[in-house]
Write a structure and sequence with these properties.
The complex is a heterodimer of chains A (287) and B (119).
Chain A: E1 2-6, H1 14-25, E2 29-33, H2 41-45, E3 48-62, H3 72-76, E4 82-85, E5 88-91, H4 101-105, E6 111-126, E7 129-136, H5 144-152, E8 159-163, H6 170-176, E9 181-186, H7 190-206, E10 210-215, H8 223-230, E11 235-239, H9 243-250, H10 255-258, H11 261-286
Parallel strand pairs in A: 1-8, 1-9, 2-7, 2-8, 9-10, 10-11
Antiparallel strand pairs in A: 3-6, 4-5, 6-7
Helix pairs in contact in A: 1-11, 5-6
Chain B: E1 2-7, E2 25-30, E3 36-40, H1 42-45, H2 51-61, E4 66-68, H3 74-82, E5 86-88, H4 95-104
Parallel strand pairs in B: 1-4, 4-5
Antiparallel strand pairs in B: 1-2, 2-3
The chains are: A alpha/beta (287), B alpha/beta (119).
Amino acid sequence: MIISVASGKGGTGKTTIATNMALALGGRVELLDCDVEEPNAHLFLKPVIERTQGVETPIPLVDESKCTFCKKCSDICRFNALAVVGKRVLVFAELCHSCGGCMLVCPEGAITETGRELGTLNFGKRDAIGFINGQLRVGEAMSPPLIKRVRAAADPERITIIDAPPGTSCPVIAAMNGTDFVLLVTEPTPFGLHDLKLAVEAVKLLGIPAGLVVNRADIGDDQVFAYAENGGLPLLLTIPFDRKIAEAYSRGKMIVEEMPEWRQRFIDLYHTIETIVQGSRAAVCAK
Amino acid sequence: MKIAVTSKGILLSSEVDPRFGRAPYIVIVDVDTLAFEVVDNSDNVNAFKGAGIQAATTVCDKGAEVLMTGYCGPKAFATLEAGGVKVVDDVTGTVRDAVAAFKAGTVVYSTAANKEAHW
């Protein structure tokens, strides 16, 4: 079971939901922090980091002594990461998306692979709960390759909970794609609704079942609730705008520890998700 | 000798476009005869990434020895430099004005990009 926690709008409570659900479920879970541009799940879960590894992405290395300057490599690159000018081939490493096309089309075998540093992967544990996060190198513009590496490192035997980055572009898609369920977290404000709609459209494109958590549920208006009801987006949990929750959060503490009554609510949330996923799998099989 | 000038239009009287990679047209002018060729750069205007690199490659391929434009970023500058093309930036007025300034010898060649890279 892989659950991604996403939102559209930032600051709605993705990390709060992901970390508290992980802690409530305990050792059968592995939490992946895929918000690699600003990972923060570790601030709440406080895992002991046991291992760190650097991650690179392949980029081309051109041997100009073999090159005939035919431009096949620069023609195939839709990101203009290669430029052939006169008797020179320039590689703009930061534009390369590592597709390998240039290496395949080079008739002279002049292009080999070298690497560009993307960032690091950190592996750790909070008690028996597994933890992995990715940390993008400062200055690196592309996060999806690193997000994919975080996901590839997941233990398939465990329940995977993914803390996704905000937004609805490539990094979020990389975090949600191929997951069994997307848990969307929003707040009942016009901003929350606007970005929730975008996130729902993205999830629809991926064809993944989704459900909603409304955080700070007693602020704003009822438009988010009306949208969820009309659109068939099941409302799975509401969290009130509660001073005790805000205080715990501001001190890096977990709701399920500070307010134990929430532990069961997060376990129930997981079981509801499990039921929905089983139902949608059965529906797919029936087709 | 040929020079390249970024342009908003297809005439010598057209205004210089300050952008390099995303200028709609690049006019390649023979400074001796004033014969010119207009390169349609519209594919690059909406390029996702690397518009400057692509435009710089085009300028090199057209055999221009100098580029006159408003702003030139670091990737475009590196590409032009590799192709042996000198850059004059902060150019304003019409394409004809730019050519006249070049012929009068009042232009100053840049030693680096005058615009930061785009992300």
